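Title: Prediction job returns without error message
Component: structure pipeline
Severity: low
Priority: P3
Assignee: unassigned

Description:
Job completed but the reporter wants confirmation the result is attached to the right record. Sequence as submitted:
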Amino acid sequence: MLAILAFASLAASPAHAAGCLTADEAAAERVRRLQTTLMIGALQCRREAALRMADIYNQVVRRYGAVISAHNKILTRYFQRTHGAGYQAAMDSHVTSMANIIARSAQRDPGFCGAAAQIGQQMLKPDAADIVDQANWAKLVDIGGPPACQPARTLRAESAAQ
């Protein structure tokens, strides 16, 4: 039984669950999705000048640029881990697909611009939460990306219950 639990723990490690996102990678993916949502808002919401989406996006990038960059590096390492030498093409494809899905959602959803502006305004408040917390709280478009890795303790609990 102990061997089964040890194997379940090993199988749940990022090295063995190659396609899933670790907690840090999942946070990085959400931060990228948040940044992409605001970028799409800046591009597609120009007709709603009162929202000032381009200004909001530029201010967010100035304020959080270093943190966004750090999360992009984590996301890059995920693609290196899961795609090896072809990581750059895989990441480019993922990021392009993400932007296209969010852009299509923006075109279909009449409330997208207002929601994106609200997210950006929240991020610019002096007492704004950490960007990862904001990415977790924000209602972001589901892009159907890679799943998060299941923690080993969950697998142990499931094995013990059987």
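Comment from assignee: result matches the submitted record. Helices lie at 2-11, 23-44, 53-83, 87-108, 112-124, 131-137, 152-161.
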